[in-house]
Specification:
288 residues; mainly alpha; Receptor-associated Protein; 3 domains
């Protein structure tokens, strides 16, 4: 029986090369599969977000822009700071920035829609009392109010003109603008269409309820604003302090940036920073 020492060196080298090649192939397949799943998920979510904010930009183009930003920012950061690790970190932030921007625009549009919804309900109520039908009241909202609520009612009116039932058109608007307030309005309209009753009075009551909820939410945000600001300040102080210390005494941070255990400590610090901010955010977030 041959021992390891008796096996010819070329055979050992061939076996090692084959094992390494197999490992690389398996890792490449795993990474490719993970990237395809991530790409599909990101494209799906980004496409929905872009459609909801009426931006006619293909989702895959936004992904290409994110990849270009990653390469540029990572390369420039590595050249300027001489640290590939920081280059990758800043590159990841740049890669996520287009999607984060789209999400920010969506949230801002949703908030604007929620503020406009109260006035829209009052206008619908007044129009119904003046003898308008519900579709005519929707046309009034489309003409008299600003975006984004005018865009949503314009699309709703276009759907009803081409034969889409009002119930489905309202559900489509609710899918585009998921909101508890809008859900309440849609439910009230559908129930009123089935059982009858004064829809104008229902719109008044819903508008009053939503307005009171917004007032309570505003008070809650004002009372918790100090806690949110403290979370931001406490999260930024260690970072700013590290830059100041490095500027005053550059050699003090040499072990942190030149060794892997130093970067590991940075990772632990960053993780604790994120966890702390999430805990504070959870504490000051109150559902109304």
């Amino acid at each position: 029986m041959l021992t390891v020492a008796q096996i010819p060196v070329p055979i050992i080298e061939f076996a090692a090369f084959g094992a390494a090649a197999l490992l690389v192939a398996v890792m490449a397949d795993i990474i490719q599969g993970a990237w395809q799943r991530y790409e599909a998920e990101v494209l799906k979510g980004t496409e929905v977000t872009l459609d909801q904010i009426y931006m006619n930009i293909p989702a895959h183009q936004l992904l290409y822009v994110a990849m270009i930003l990653f390469a540029l920012v990572a390369g420039l950061t590595t050249l300027l700071l001489g640290s590939p690790v920081l280059g990758v970190v800043f590159g990841i932030v740049a890669f996520a920035s287009p999607r984060l921007l789209a999400g920010h625009l969506k949230r801002r549009r949703d908030r604007r829609f929620g503020v406009q919804l109260v006035d829209a309900l009052m206008n619908i109520s007044n129009a119904l009392r003046s003898g308008f039908s519900l579709p005519q009241a929707f046309e009034l909202i489309q003409r008299e109010m600003d975006n984004p609520i005018a865009q949503e009612f314009r699309l709703l009116n276009q759907e009803t003109r081409v034969g889409v039932p009002l119930e489905q058109a309202l559900e489509h608007m609710l899918e585009r603008m998921p909101s508890d307030d809008l859900d309440l309005v849609v439910t009230a309209i559908l129930v009123s269409a089935e059982v009858g009753g004064s829809l104008a009075e229902v719109m008044d009551n819903i508008a009053r309820t939503i307005r009171e909820r917004h007032q309570i939410e505003g008070k809650v945000r004002a009372l918790t604003s100090q806690g949110r600001m403290q979370a931001v300040i406490l999260g930024l102080v260690p970072i700013l302090l590290a830059f100041v210390i490095n500027w005053l005494n550059p050699g003090l941070f040499e072990p942190m940036v030149r060794t892997w255990y130093g970067w590991g400590l940075f990772a632990v610090i960053g993780l604790l920073e994120v966890l702390g901010m999430l805990v504070v955010r959870k504490i000051v977030t109150i559902d109304v």
